[in-house]
User: Which sequence fits this backbone?
C-alpha cells in the first residue's frame, strides 16, 4: 500500500546497512542511477541522504528536485520504493552530526575509511512510500 | 561485469521528468558490443514500458558487491520482449553470485531468503549503450569512460 508518511517499520530497514539505489533526472531529461550507502530517517515526512562527492546526483536534484530511492530489505524479502523531493542541504546540526557518525561506521565496516566523507545532509520531503514484496524463487 | 557483477538497478523517467527505478535481475552485453540487455522482474512494468516508449531514456548501474566496483550504462531504449529460453538461467547465474557474496554477512539466513532478492525475470529490455561511467566509490566516481571525457 502506498502512503505519504514513513511507517515505523521502515526505520529498521533504513538502518540495516544495505546499500540503496537512487534515481534522479537532469533538467534535460537524462536519468541517473547510483548506489547510496545511507538513507537517514529524519521524521515521518522527511529523509536525509548523504552528499559526499560533487556528483551527477547532487547536480540533478538541484536542477530537478524529484528523486526515487529503493531501500532493500533482504531479510524481509521486499524493498521499499520512496518518491522524494529535494528541499535543502544542511552542513551542521543534529541530522548532519548523526549522519556523519553513521558514515564513519559504514566506511569502517566496508573498507571505505578515508573515501566516504560527509559534505552535507541533503533533506528530502517524502512524496510517497510503498513496500514491494519480492516473489519467491524456486 | 557480465561475469562477476551481482547487483544492478535501472533508472527511467516519465514525460514530466519524474525519475523512478526498477530492479534488474540479469544483464548481458550484445554481440555487437554496442547494446545491452537487461532482465527485469514483474514490478511496475506498465509504467516502465510506457516511459521507455515515450522518451527512450535509460540508465543502468551494475555493481560487484562487496568490492563496490560499479559502472553506469546510459543509453536509448530499442525494444522489449517477453522471457525466452536462457533468460531464467541468466538470472539464476546472478542469483548464485549474489547469494555467494552475501553469505558471509547473512551466515544464518535461509537460502531461499537470499535467493528471493534476485526475482525471476518477467521482461527483457534491449538498449543501445551511448555512455559508460565509473561509479566505484572514490575520487574517480562519475568519470565518463565511454566516450572518453575530454581534457
Assistant:
Amino acid at each position: 500500500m502506498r502512503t505519504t508518511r514513513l511507517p515505523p517499520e521502515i526505520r529498521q530497514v533504513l538502518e540495516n546497512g544495505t546499500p540503496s539505489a537512487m534515481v534522479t533526472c537532469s533538467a534535460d531529461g537524462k536519468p541517473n542511477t547510483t548506489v547510496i550507502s545511507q538513507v537517514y530517517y529524519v521524521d515521518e515526512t522527511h529523509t536525509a541522504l548523504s552528499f559526499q562527492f560533487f556528483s551527477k546526483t547532487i547536480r540533478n536534484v538541484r536542477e530537478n528536485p524529484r528523486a526515487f530511492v529503493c531501500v532493500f530489505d533482504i531479510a524481509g524479502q521486499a524493498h521499499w520504493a520512496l518518491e522524494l523531493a529535494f528541499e535543502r542541504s544542511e552542513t551542521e546540526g543534529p541530522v548532519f552530526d548523526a549522519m556523519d557518525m553513521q558514515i564513519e561506521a559504514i566506511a569502517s565496516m566496508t573498507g571505505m575509511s578515508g573515501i566516504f566523507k560527509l559534505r552535507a545532509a541533503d533533506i528530502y520531503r517524502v512524496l510517497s512510500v510503498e513496500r514491494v514484496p519480492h516473489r519467491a524463487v524456486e | 561485469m557480465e561475469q562477476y557483477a551481482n547487483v544492478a538497478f535501472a533508472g527511467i523517467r516519465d514525460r514530466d521528468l519524474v525519475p523512478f527505478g526498477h530492479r534488474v535481475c540479469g544483464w548481458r552485453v550484445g554481440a555487437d558490443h554496442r547494446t545491452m540487455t537487461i532482465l527485469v522482474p514483474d514490478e511496475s512494468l506498465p509504467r516502465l514500458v510506457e516511459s521507455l516508449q515515450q522518451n527512450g531514456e535509460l540508465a543502468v548501474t551494475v555493481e560487484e558487491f562487496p568490492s563496490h566496483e560499479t559502472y553506469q550504462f546510459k543509453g536509448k531504449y530499442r525494444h522489449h520482449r517477453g522471457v525466452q529460453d536462457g533468460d531464467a538461467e541468466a538470472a539464476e547465474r546472478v542469483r548464485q553470485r549474489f547469494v555467494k557474496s552475501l553469505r558471509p554477512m547473512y551466515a544464518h539466513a535461509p537460502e531461499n531468503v537470499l535467493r528471493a532478492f534476485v526475482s525471476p525475470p518477467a521482461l527483457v529490455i534491449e538498449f543501445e549503450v551511448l555512455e559508460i561511467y565509473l561509479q566505484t566509490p572514490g575520487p574517480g566516481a562519475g568519470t565518463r569512460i565511454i566516450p572518453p571525457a575530454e581534457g
Chain B touches chain A through 47 residues (CB under 8 Å).
